[in-house]
Amino acid sequence: MKKGEPLEAFESLSHIQDVYKPSKEVVENSYVKDYDSLYEFSIKENQKFWDDVAKDLEWYRHYDKVLYSEPPFYKWFTGGKINIVHNALDRHVNSSRKNKLAIIWEGEDGTGRSYTYLSLHKEVNRMANILKSFGIKKGDTVTIYLPNIPEIAVSMLACAKIGAIHSVVYAGFSATALKDRIMDAGSRLLITSDGGYRGGKIVELKKIADEALSGTPFVKTVIMVRRTGHDVPFDESRDFYYDELMNRPGIASTFKTEEMDSEDPLFILYTSGTTGKPKGILHVHGGYAVGIYITSKYVFNINDNDTYWCAADPGWITGHSYIIYGPLINGATTVMVEGSPYYPTCDRWWKIIEKHAVNIFYTSPTAIRGIMRFGEELPNKHDLSSLKILGSVGEPINPEVWRWYYKHIGKERCPIMDTWWQTESGMFLITPVPSMPLKPGSCGKPFPGIDADIFDEEGNPAPPEKGGYLVIKNPWPSMMRTIYKDEKRYIETYFSKYKNAYLAGDTAKKDKDGYFYVMGRIDDVIKVSGYRLGTAEIESALITHEAVAESAVIGKPHKLKGNSIKAFVVLKPGFEKSESLLENIRENVGHTLGPIAKPDEIEFVDSLPKTRSGKIMRRVLKAREMGLSEGDLSTIEED
Ligand code: PRX
Question: Does residue 289 contact residue 57 with C-beta atoms inside 8 Å?
């Protein structure tokens, strides 16, 4: 948001009057029955609040201090020894949960598998032994490039178990994106699969991985899961089949979990920012475990008999925190589903809810909008009575979409948890809890322990109904610790605009009752179908095409995807504008960055609006595109 820019979108939510009160039953079954008093306590006695939460986890050595603060660097539970996998897996195996289902998996091709806590524990131990046998040790990074199959959970947990840092790359990214992430993380080992299913087609993961690995000679080992079973290139000197390794004689199903310092790194996850280079967000064992444990519990009200399904991909933070670690720490049964919601039939998701009697269902506004297109007849054909709580994440949910979800999926019984958070936050920051009255379009109030606010340009708190910058005024245990190998960027991006407040990068407002409404990003990040993409990343992909001299990318509101991508392209001399060139440039972005980044629209232009210092003014392009005023154009220069 630039100074003086209108915030019309806020006004459009002001008319919303409907409030949805939870039933008596929901309140009675909630962990948090009285949000206001818990919240007050959690802010007044912040460290006591987090200390109480942390005591629910098992520590090898109790921490000396809850918070060690050297702003903007914060350490939590210092002196403590822990491993997140001990809490997510090992301790359940020594309890009555031993034979309970940990993971239920549904493949897109109709196959399925499930794991009890005991069988998952054994599989993870075997994988941990395999990683060790390849020389992977504490502090090493391992890149994981897998579809939504149980082996992704096994691989992540095995890395964490031995103290290695996992770096999962979403299986929709292409070779260059994968290569950049492997190089930045410095991984010596890659775990991938021959392919994955999506919409009835095979995504050629191994081929993409091979392309990424050419020119990255330090990757000495590739472990390949056989998912699709089709023929793929196989390099005998470097590649190993996952199943053969797992069944090797001598690979034990026991493993002594590495005792980690609370602040030891757990994973890197790359996300988009203002510049073209993705940010390696670094999370650690102790604080991350505490944050996602309590948010999963309080927001989804997970009980011991609950079956929980988060329909995200494990390749994103939602999958890390709320498919794998959060539910497993809580001892729940977590459902993983490969592939498209619409294949082989458009009611696939409702079938799965009915089949597994899912109690908690968590997805994105884009998915709900997509499903709404087919009408309520499809969910109505299925028994969804097992559902108790619904969730939404990734982008603002339009009030009308919220109401549809509430009525036709939740049957007016299930509260919707619209959870606002980020890769950087690790856990929910602003969200309702089930006992809280709900307002469509609002992501509720700050989670206990989180001091969130809206600031104006100068850092003054904005009054109710006034839009501004969303900030968090105190640290929280599962916050990122830094941007991998780029401390300077960490400070500049999040802690330079305001002293001692974390700048989330979103615009938002609060209403008179303290409910938050998140509107969108302030930086050059576009949320497309909930995916986070940087305009600079897409522009870098565009100019890899031989015909492209310059490009600028903007996000445009889109009914289904939240935002669509529009690219303005200046061609190099000697290239003629044509439909086929346009399509070719579009495909090249798909190949360079990934299919999710392909522009929906490309327009050939002769020049781009720029400031006198040569910066492309995307704001002007966006204003023109949307028929809005172009603001102050005094610094503009069109060459
Ligand atoms: O703009 C906000 C939007 O997604 C951004 C974070 O994206 P990412 O790191 O990919 O994490 C997505 C999953 C947590 C935020 O800065 N966002 C996320 N959740 C919501 C949201 N916008 C509005 N409402 C939400 N519930």
Answer: yes
